[in-house]
Write a structure and sequence with these properties.
The complex is a heterodimer of chains A (135) and B (145).
Chain A lengths: L2 H21 L2 E12 L5 E20 L3 E4 L2 E13 L15 E4 L8 E11 L3 E9 L1
Antiparallel strand pairs in A: 1-2, 1-5, 2-4, 3-4, 4-7, 5-6, 6-7
Chain B lengths: L2 H15 L9 E4 L10 E13 L5 E15 H6 L4 H18 L6 E19 L2 E16 L1
Parallel strand pairs in B: 1-2
Antiparallel strand pairs in B: 2-3, 3-5, 4-5
Classes of the chains: A alpha+beta (135), B alpha+beta (145).
Chain lengths: 135, 145
């Protein structure tokens, strides 16, 4: 592995995970859904927490417009949610677009739930999840 | 929309509105719900109908098809311990019952009110949730008093 690769690996897996907990403004739970059959072809979901208190930050991706979907007017915005690739114990988070991200309340700032559109990482140090959220 | 169809619309709304609160139904809206609406809700829309006249061009009656649709998201269905499809079916069953049994037209004589067809299930992914909708077509024929 190259020197830079070694440095990034060390940063991502050993040095930075504990730093992210200090410098990132928010924490989130990573949610997974389990589908349960209703016995007639339909499914209802049970939500479980895969990871809790993951440090994160979020920012608006681009300006969006209102749209009519699902029988109502919606105001939907895309966001990028950034969070570490690794936990403080050096293991890697296993998160995919099947998960949802629940950014926890901060002060009187309410809970925000994001659905992941796509996932990518930046140098193996942080994930940058492109998400949508209803405003 | 004619005066007669407007009277029908009010009757349809009243019949549907009487189901609010059942199965967690929050509201009833014409055509589409506003931004603050909370799932599950029902919308109703009038399809262009036909007008029957006598040879003397006297209005004999108006026949309209109304599209009644129920919308729910998976979260609300979970809260009712039903699949979204099943929750919509429960809401629509009650809606049909009320439209058949409780429809009252002020200013018209109700001649026919019956479900004549269904609207296929549709699934839309909206922000952080999946929204399910389905419905039925309801025929109403009203003659002037």
């Amino acid at each position: 592995m190259s020197l830079i690769g070694d440095v990034l690996t060390s940063l991502a897996q050993a040095d930075l995970p504990s730093v992210f907990g200090v410098v990132m403004p928010d924490t989130m739970d990573v949610l997974a859904e389990t589908a349960t059959s209703d016995g007639a072809g339909g499914q209802r979901r049970t939500e479980t927490v895969t990871y809790s208190n993951v440090p994160c930050s979020y920012e608006r991706k681009e300006l969006k417009r209102r749209d009519v979907q699902g029988g109502k007017t919606n105001s939907i915005q895309e966001f990028i949610v950034e969070f570490p690739t690794h936990k403080t114990d050096g293991t890697r988070y296993s998160i995919s677009p099947q998960n949802r991200l629940k950014v926890l309340a901060r002060g009187n700032e309410p809970i925000k739930i994001f659905r992941i559109i796509s996932m990518s990482d930046d140098g193996g140090i942080t994930f940058q999840a492109v998400c949508t959220k209803e405003n | 929309m004619s005066e007669l169809s407007e009277a029908v619309k009010i009757g349809v709304y009243d019949a549907l509105f009487s189901t609010v609160g059942l199965n967690g139904l929050t509201s009833v809206h014409e055509d589409k719900a506003p931004i603050e609406a909370v799932y599950p809700f029902v919308t109703f829309t009038r399809a262009p109908g036909t007008v029957t006249r006598s040879f003397g061009e006297t209005l004999q009656g108006e026949r309209d098809i109304w599209f009644i649709k129920s919308f729910t998201d998976a979260e609300k269905a979970d809260a009712q311990t039903l699949s979204p499809q099943k929750l919509n079916a429960e809401i629509l069953t009650i809606a049909e019952t009320r439209l058949v049994g409780n429809l009252s037209i002020d200013g018209g004589r109700l001649e026919r009110n019956i479900r004549v067809g269904d609207i296929p299930q549709q699934i839309e992914v909206i922000s952080d949730r999946d929204v399910y909708s389905s419905g039925f077509q309801f025929e109403i024929y009203v003659a002037p008093n």
